Each structure stands twice: as structure tokens, then as C-alpha cells.
Structures
1.
Amino acid sequence: MPHIAIISSSVRTGRNSHRVALYFQNYLQANGHGTTEIIDLNEYSFPVFDERLRFQKEPTEKMLDFSARVKKADGIIIVTPEYNGSIPAALKNVTDLLYDEWYHKPIAMSTVSDGAFGGSQVIIALQFTLWKMKALTVPAMFPVPKVREAFDETGNATDKAGTDKRAAGFVKELLWCIDAAGKMKE
């Protein structure tokens, strides 16, 4: 059974994308798709990094914890809002902190916005960054437009049946990539 980490990328006050991270944790567990954990960037309060982790002379416990949690995961779902058409600074910061940890890691992306497009522009920047690090980006996406109307604060979808149907296809692709990556390591 795979271990899937869900990175909740927003550190803003009143953030809404965390609702989607909670949804995925509940969905994955309820459907027996594996063990899960949320890696909440809001809980780390990282400074802006001046170097990748492997080159830092005295990495903090939080940096090492983040690295270990990413490394331990068989697959990752990144839930990210779109800020001004791009990646939130907190997510770009931790993406660039690591390198080897992303190598051949299956990563699925869920983009979120308050508007009608569901964060569709952020996917391009994030996917390109992850490709450069040789992560295995999952071709399925899970955009969430009008997130405050789609999910409550505890991660419950207002259209549970429709959302679960979309999530099933998204998660199926992630699980396929996790399985394929596992076979390639053998």
C-alpha cells in the first residue's frame, strides 16, 4: 500500500487551498488508496533559502524533516493556489530546497483559485520546475475553480459525487505512476 504525501502549499492568512488538501487526505483514506499525511508548509515557516539542502552546512531539523517526509512518500499530491499566474513563493522555495528527493518521484498537481479557471496557469510553471528536477509529473490534473464554493473549511466537497468522480481519475493516474516507478526501481 503506497504512502502518499499531500503538500499544502499556501501560507497565506485565510488560505483556501488547504481545504483541497484535507479533501484528498480524507478521500485517499476512505477509499483505501494508501496511507497519507499532509505536509503543511504553513507549519514550517521556512526562511527564504540561499542554497539547496545538500549544500547547507547546518540544516535545521525542520529542513531535514521536510526532506525526509518527501523522500519517504511513494507519491505526492501538491495542492497549490495560483498567485498572480504562478507558483506561491513558499512552494517555489521548498521545491528549490530539495533536488535528489524529487528525482523520479511521482507527483500529481491540484491547482486552486477563487476564480473560474482553477489555477490553470500555475500548472505550467510548476510542471516545468518539476520536470527540470526529473520528477515524474502525473499527466492528470485536478483544477479547482471557485474553491470556497466547492469545499468547506474541513475539506468536504459541496458536490461530493462529482468531486469524488473527478478525484477517482486523478488518483488512478497517480497510483499508476507510483506502481510504474516502483517497478522501474526493481
2.
Amino acid sequence: MSFPRHIRKVFLAIEQAEGAGARVRRSIGTPALRNFSPFLMLDHFSIKPGAGFPDHPHRGQETITYLLQGGVDHEDFAGNSGTIGPGDLQFMTAGKGIMHAEMPRQNPDGSANVGLQLWVDLPKDLKSCEPRYRDLRAAEIPTVDVDDNKVHIKVISGQSHGIDSVKDLAYTPVWILDVTIQPGGKVEQPLPAKWNAFAYVLEGNVKFSNGEEEAKTVEQYNNVVFGPEGDGINASVDASATAPARFVLIAGTPLDQEIVQYGPFVVNSKEEVYKALMDYQTHSNGFERADGWQSEIGKSMVH
């Protein structure tokens, strides 16, 4: 690769409580990295049985949930419901308004349900679109192996080494690649020009080239934010490493618009925040079906 992107910053995602009894490591949506357009939030969540995200509203964004282990049930006020399992993704477009619940499976061994949830901003002209869901099953995700099979890439969204993902999952163009590198492996991954990009390390230690400077070793649970200039990223794992490393590489087209977020509502002005709250409280302009609605799955929460 002629010119790898420069690393803007590297920081650890600190674990915190969220929802009802869930634990999350939030990297985007914290003082360390706010509104890295089009990305609003990235949570690496761990939800034990008895915890979860009972009934709550959204407006103005898309959420992408990638389950790494366990299972999560979802249900919304439009009658949509289902379950995603290990390696599955759910793309949810809140649009003008949705109310839903996301609850973990009760795993027989009591283990946690672990995954990533990414919030992506919607372009201004799509903020009031109809809500929708798309599930992407693990078996549908194309993969590619490079560097003598020392690198395995799941092409969730976007393209890598001539392999294209399943199309039309999110309204805002986003690439998501899940990359596992064995000790001694290396990969060059091009990215669309000027898109904002970051990598989040799920396991092990990854070396990322840093433009013309010395490569940077990034440890588990750290987020690596890349500068906008350059052709892509170079990543490797030392041959002396005792275990493989795994990271997600995510890139998206920056949106030229104001971001005003109030909890689960992501709009473009303060006036629109008041309107979202009013619409939600009066069950209007997208929240009509929230009137009196209660999810079945949310009732499992212990009060």
C-alpha cells in the first residue's frame, strides 16, 4: 500500500454500567471520542442473564448489533421480533421513531451474551423514514483468507481482497470488517478515500502502521482512530505472539450536519429534541404505536 493512514489517537474503552444490569465498554460516545461522523456510539457489551435493555425509544439513527457470543432477542411496537445468535448481525433503522426491547438469552451455563453495538447517524433527509430491520446471519457473511491463511476476514459490509459484502444493510454507507490475524500474519486493507475509520481490538495485540512513523502496538479493548488521509490501513501480529489477534475495522462516510443527541434521540437541532420528546410523550409523528405497548420479552426483567 502506497500510503497507510496516520493514527490520530489510541485509547482504552473503560467498562461502565448501562441499561438494566448490563456492562459495556464504550469507546465512541465518550469524552475521548464524540460524534466521529457518521458514528455516534460504539459499545462492546456483556449482558448476563437477568440484565438487558427493556422497552425504550429511538429516533434519527441506525443501530448495528454484532453478536459475538450467546443470543439476544428483540421485539418492537410494529410486531417485529426475532433472535440473533453468535456471529449474526441486526441492522435497525429507527427513522422517525421506534420503541423496542433487546433482551439477552438465558444461557444454560449462566454465561454472558457479548457483542458490539454501533450507532450510525442518519442523513438529515432520512431522519423521518419508516423504521426497518435487516438481519444478517453468520452463514451469509462472505469471508476471505490472505497471507497464506494467516489472516481471516469476515466481510460484513464493504469489500476486502476482491470479496464484496451483502448489499444494502444500512442507509448510511458503512464498511465493517472482522479481521483475525495469526502470529506472524499481516494485512493491507484499502479504505474509501476521506471516510472516517477506526479499529477496535477484541482480542490480542495488533500492530498498526502509523504513516511514516514507527508502527504502534494496540492492546485489547483499545480503539484506534485513523486520520482521513491515506489509502487504508496495515495491520500485523508479531511472529512471537502466543495467540492470534482480532479486531473490527469500521469506516463510514462523514455527514455534513449538526448532531444533537438526547439519550436515544439523534436529531439536528435543539428544537428537534423538544419535538422528539413531545412526540414520544404524546404518541404522535412516528410514536403512535408506543401508546400502551409493552414488549413480552421486557416483562422477564426482575423488578
3.
Amino acid sequence: MPPEKKPLLPGLYLVSTPIGNARDITLRALDVLAAADVLAAEDTRSLRRLMDIHGIALEGRPLLAYHDHNAPAVRPRLLSELREGRSVAYAPEAGTPLISDPGYGLVRAVIEAGLPLTAVPGPAALATALTLAGLPTDRFLFAGFLPNGSTARRKALAELAAVPATLVFYESPRRVGEMLADAVLTLGEERQAAICRELTKRYEEVRRGSLGELARELAEERLRGEVVVIIDRNRGQADAGELETALREALKTMSVKQAAGEVASRLGLPRRQVYQAALKLGEKP
């Protein structure tokens, strides 16, 4: 049953779309797509297909392609529509706008012009992968796509090596093996990781293991489909001063066990190591 058309207030609506399964669209996204005066999409064919699946007719409304290659030419038209008091819905090919998808330039222009802007949240491959990887999610860094060349890729990975957070990357299925090989050389083969592929689709797959194990497994294999790579944070020795400061603060309000667990999670350190340090601090006068 098609959504009921409800009038929209003027403004730009950033609409998140499914990353695979068409039923992951939100009810609010369907309402916006059904009622917007103007539609813009990274891929107009993908948006038309999604609308057809959910029974939303275009009904003569403008449907404009807006992507990295034509953005400078199309952006003035969209801004003009907004200035004239119309509602404009923008949808990426899949996922959340601006998350490794076009739209940043449009959003900046809308903000600078003082025009209304809102988001219609929904699926994102990075969030879906984080929930499935089995790695810490209390703190993570989304690094997008790494450079294509090995030298530049290793340099980028080296800059992230000490970041105390789970690392999230999008990667081409053709380059996953090469990327993992460079990650082993740069980050070490023992770091835990997960390769998440074709999320929400029929052939969804998550492979978990150390970087070394996954690199050997995928050295010759060629994957298909969208890929997200999740890599655990560095779990080496933390700076002794940083660890002691964090533990002393936590021990003011927590037991030794609770403080060790909280600090270990926050600093990305083995719980046993932090617990032993907390015990020593607890023994000091």
C-alpha cells in the first residue's frame, strides 16, 4: 500500500535509503519521497526502482541527478527550488547521505544560504557492520576509503595505528586482499578484524579473525559486492601515566573490578593488565 501523501514544509530533506534490502526503508522516508515537490538522487534509476517497489508514483515531479560529477551545475537549480519555498528530497544510491556519498557541497550551500535543512535517518553500512563485527563499539573512527596505491595506503594506515578506537573502512572488493596485506605490515598481524560483505542482502557474509588470518585467507580470493573492513584498536601497552591517571579517577567512585573494566574498555587495553594495575594502586596508601 503506497504511503499517504502529507504536505511537507519547505526545505532540503536528506533521505537515507536501504543498503541492500529494500524493506529497510523507514516509514518517514517513504512519506518524504511521496510528498516532496522535487526529488534529487545520486542515481535516479536506483531511486525510481525503490519508489516503484514501495508504490510511490513520480506524478510529474522533477527528478534530478545529483552526484560528484554534475554537482556544480545542478546545485543552483536545487537552491533555487528551496528559495522559492519548495521541498526537495535528496537520496544517495544506498545508505546515508554524505557518509562516503555525495551531498556535502549541497548541505554547505543550504546552510550558508540560511535555508531549512533536515535529515531522514536510516541505514548506513558502517553502523550495520559495527553491530555485526563483534569488536568494541564504545569508540570508533570511520576512515572511509583508503588510497588505492600501496605506498599511500600504508602511510594512511600508519597514521591510524595508535588511534585508541575501532577502525572502520569502506573498501573495493577487488582491493580487500591488498588492503589486508598492507594492514598486516602496518598494524601487525595479531589485531582482530572483520570483513563484512553484502550487508542486508541475500549473500551477507561476515568473516572474523586476526589481520594475519584474514590476509592469508583473502590473498588470492576475489570478493564480490560492497565491503566494510573493521579493525580492532591497538591493544599494546598504554602510557603508564595515562593508565594510572585514568585508574585513580575511576577508583574514586568504583570498585577495583569496576574501575578496571571501565578503563580497559576506554583505553582499549587487556582487562587483566588493567586489573593488575588497579590492584597495585589500591594497595598504595
4.
Amino acid sequence: MEKGKMGGRPPEIRKDWVTNRWVIFSPARAKRPSDFKSKSPATPTQQQQYQQSCPFCLGNEHDCAPEIFRVPPDDPKWKLRVIQNMYPALSRAADVPVITVPVPAQEESSSLGQVMTGFGFHDVVIETPLHSLHLSDLSPTQIAHVLLAYTTRIHHLIANHSIKYVQVFKNHGASAGASMSHSHSQMMALPIVPPAVAARLDSMKDYFNRTGKCSVCEFNSNDLLIHASPHFISIVPYAATFPFEIWIIPLTHSPHFHELDADKAVDLGGILKLMLRKMALQLNNPPFNFVIQTSPLQDGASELPHSHWFLQIIPQLSVAAGFEIGTGCYINPVFPEDAAKVLREVNVLPLEGDD
């Protein structure tokens, strides 16, 4: 690499007060931020609107697992559907989970760990009836319908007191974990609070106890800002784990994603679309994941002042190798301020049908 290409900036090791994770920023391992491109775009540019072999296409509903609901309700020309996952990671038919501690037969005095039944819900949100469309092709209002489908389903799941946490996520592109090319996202309702979620919430609570402030509300650096809308900002986080990682954050303190209302859903749909299109233009339409980082369903009032939900977008531009696996500490070759500047400057023209 040409000496001084990244301005001779020395490496840094950063940790923010949300994830509480150390990240090494090592620009010597990278090209210029503007040179980052996905080597394997997520999807071909031309696709058919309908594929006979795709169970998610309009008219192939009989090939899917049972439907939970659709929008509009009972309409054969639906706009989106929420269905059970055909190959669920958890079983809604399993017994209500009870944690037990098994004892090995040969060593009565020792324990291997804890176990519970694999109870939970694993659902799929089919975001459009047309095979050729992706989430970023939809209008902000259409994306809002997808977001509100998530909140509707979460409200269904709250009634089951065994469910502690609902993870909404989207895998776009085969290398990001998508097994189907038809645009869809997933929801998993868990009888536990996952360890990464618990660690994030503990870090946010510790910051609040020390400062009296929400660590997510404190993200106000212009150097990290990509875009601001009436109700949301998009940023590259201060200690971004991955190159060109993006967070979309509500401007008003809000602990639970499922409290999102219809007006804010349209605004969120617009900024999410903008971020996906900026990312596609700048990074050659990379495979990506997004996840909604929210709060456990049963959080009480004492947990709400420090807990703030956000939507995290991760373009798949690098892989976790031995160092990351061994330490849990990631190496990011792009400083967040550089990534934010590049994304701010990507010019996205409006598409026909945008509202």
C-alpha cells in the first residue's frame, strides 16, 4: 500500500459505552475508504417478478409454512405476509421452557451446564409479493408496512410470558446467510435474553448509573453523522465493529422498537431505504445483515431510562478470522469518521414511486 494513503493515521483501540466491545482500527490494513467495494454483489441485476419454484412469490402460498397474517388481511393480492419458518430453529410446539442442570452419570458431583427445552417462535416476513424487488426498491411507506408488521407480531408474542426477547433480523445475499433470494426478513422469539443483548444492556446501564444519561442519546458527533430525518439519525458508531457499519437511532429516547408508531415508521422507512441505497452505490451492492437492537419484552420501569433501541446495518465486507474468534476483539480497517464522510457524500437520486 502506498505510504500515507490513509493520511499516516496511527492505529487506535476504541470502546464505546453501548456495546462495551474493544475494536482495533488499523488503517494500514486497508485501501482508502472510498475504494471499498464488495467483491461478490448480493444479487444479479436482472430478475423475474415471478419464479415458479419460489414459495414466497404471489400465487405460491400453498408451498409455504402456515401463515400468521398478511397485509391487507384476507386479500389474495397481498402486499406482505408473515408466516411460520418452514425450518425453525426453535419449536412453538415444545414444552414451556424450564431450566435444569444435568449431572453426568459418571461424575455425580459435577455439572456440564444448563439446559432448557427449545421452545420459541421462528417466523418469516415476506416483504413483497414480487421476486424482482428488494427492500431498498420499496417506497418509504411500503417499508413502513414491513416495519409495522414486525411490531404487530411482537405485540402478539408479548402475550406469551415465556418469551423474553424478540430478535428481528434480515440476511441479504447468500454470503450474509440468506437461503432464499426473494426479499424477506426473520423474527425469532426466545425464552432467554441472549448474552450479547445482556452485555449491551449492562454497558448502557453502567453508563447511565455513572452519568445519568443514555449512552445512545449521547451519540451526537457531526463527524459520525451520515443523515438526519425528523425522527431519526443514521451514524457510523464510534467503535464500529465492521467496516461501514451503520446505526439508525430514534432521536427521542425509546427503549422498545415495538412502540414505533405509523408516522415514525414511514420516516424510518425513508432513512433505511436511503442507507441501503447509499451502501449499494458506494460498496457495489454488498451482502448485508440488519438487526434491530431492542430491549427485553419484560423490562420494568427501572430498565427504561438507559435502554434505547436502534437498527444496525452490517455490510459483509470482511470475515471474522482467528484473532476475532479467539479474542472477541475485532479489527476494522476503516475509521468510523472516514466511513461516515464517504457515506454522507454518496449522492442518491430519488426513484420513481418514492414518497
